[in-house]
Every structure is written in C-alpha cells, then in structure tokens.
Amino acid sequence: MGSKDLALGNVNEDAELLQGQAEVYKHLFAYADSLVLRSAVELRIADIIHSHGQAMSLSQIASKIASSSLNIMCLERVMRMLVRKKIFTAHCNEQPSGETLTLYGLTTTSMWLLHDQELSLAPAFLTFTDHSFTKPWYEISRSIKDGGIPFVRAHGESFWEMTSNNPEFNKLFNHGMATITKHTLDAIIKGYKDGFSELEGTLVDVGGGIGRLVANIVKTYPHIKGINFDVPHVVANAPLHPGVTHVGGDIFKEIPSARNIIIK
C-alpha cells in the first residue's frame, strides 16, 4: 500500500483497511489477556475447580475465594473472558426451578495453571507478568531515542544487579525460570540418554541457576560428577543436590575446569 491518508468509504471496498484497524485494536488490548489470566492464577481458580472434582457455578467458585467483600460481578467478567479464550469451559445447566446455571470447568490449558502440580506453569506466569518484569517494556522507545538499556532505565540498575540486591526479586526470577524450563530440560535428559551415558568425568552447567538440570542429569547418570556454576548470589540460595557441587563466579572471567560443559 502506498502512502496516503486514511479515509473510509464503502465498507466492502475498504475491507482491507478495516482489517488493519482490527489488527491495531487486537494489539491495543493484548495486555488485558495476560493480566486477566494473571488474576485467575492469583485467585487459584483452576485449583478451586480441580479440587472440587467437577465443573462449578460462579457462586461455588466465589465461596472458595477468601474474601469478606468479593466482587462477584467482576469475577463473572473474568470468567466470561477466560472462557472466550478457551482457558475454562462454560456449560449451561438447567435447574429443576427452570433457571439456567452456568458451570465452569477446566481445559487442558488451565490444567497447566494448577499451582501444586509438578508441571505447573503458574509460578512462571506470575513471574513474567510481575510489574518488575513488565515495567522495562515501557522504556523501549526512550532507549531507542536516548540510548541505554530498558531494564536499567526502569529500575536504576541492571537485571543481574537487581537479582543480587533484591532477594525477593531473585527468588521470583529463579522460581519462574525453574518452572518454565523444567519441561524442556526433562525432555533433554530423556532424549539424549545415549550421549549422557557416554560422558566421562565432570559436567559443568554454566549459568545453571539453582542446579536443577545438572542435578537431574547426575541422578539419572550417577557416573557423572556435576558442577552447577552461576553468579554467587544465585548459587548461595541453591539447594543441596547429591553429586553436585555449587560454584559461584563470573562466566566472563573464568568457569570451573571440567571435561564436559553445558551452556543453554
């Protein structure tokens, strides 16, 4: 399309232009999808339905949310939107009184948002929709115009400085990363079994976080000696893993000596 002013005339003739308008609206309100879903994760709505064992009415869900002044109208709007996004299901159930009751159920998508499941993505969702992670995105245009890094502009320090200086942020990030990478890492351990079985000596995971990957490799292939290498404040909070040594340092200066290295 060449350069020209926007002008709407005949709807049929301007279908392409109207499609462009629709795309802009889609991006305009895209943030709402993530934040409405975040509210459902915070309220543990998927967990409430899962614990009930079957689909639930809005009032049943509301009764399980600890609140003395719950806004059920707002809750209904959240559920309506998440049904439209196929996060939950909604089925109309006719009552003996003739009244129609909407029952909300889980989908394969909302199953991933159960907090107490091993494969849950709920912690990752709460991490990466947290204000500390979204705030730097508002600094992109200023970074382009004036230079600098969006995260530093937003928080006054680099990402890794913040993880070092702010224990709560560090915990939030580590927890989110552990859950978001678990599924991929488990697949690597199982899929590369021939490779791991042939490794000899020590294996160092560079940037290994709290050591989950190398710990699972060593657990599955106990002939391997593991080293989990990351910045000091990360490994300081890492749990003990049998067969794994935690080492803190700077990847840009020196990494532990080992026969095998993982960099992901």
Strand order, largest beta sheet: 6-5-4-7
Enter the CATH topology name of the largest domain: Rossmann fold
CATH class of the largest domain reads: Alpha Beta
Q: How does the helix and strand content classify structurally? A: alpha/beta
The overall pLDDT average reads 90
Say which CATH homologous superfamily of the largest domain is assigned. Vaccinia Virus protein VP39
Strands, total number: 7
What gyration radius follows from the Cα positions, in whole Å? Answer: 24 Å
Distance between the termini: 42 Å
Helix count equals 15
**Largest sheet geometry:** 4 strands, parallel
Shape label: globular
Q: Approximately what portion of the residues adopt beta-strand conformation?
A: 5-15%
Give me the strand/helix succession: HHHEHHEEHHHHHHHHEHEHEE
* Total number of domains: 2
CATH-defined architecture of the largest domain: 3-Layer(aba) Sandwich
Spans of at least 5 consecutive residues with low confidence: none
Sum up the structure in keywords.
264 residues; O-methyltransferase domain-containing protein; 2 domains; Arc Repressor Mutant, subunit A; 4-stranded parallel beta sheet; 15 helices; 3-stranded antiparallel beta sheet
Précis, in short:
This protein is α/β, with parallel strands linked by helices and 264 residues long.
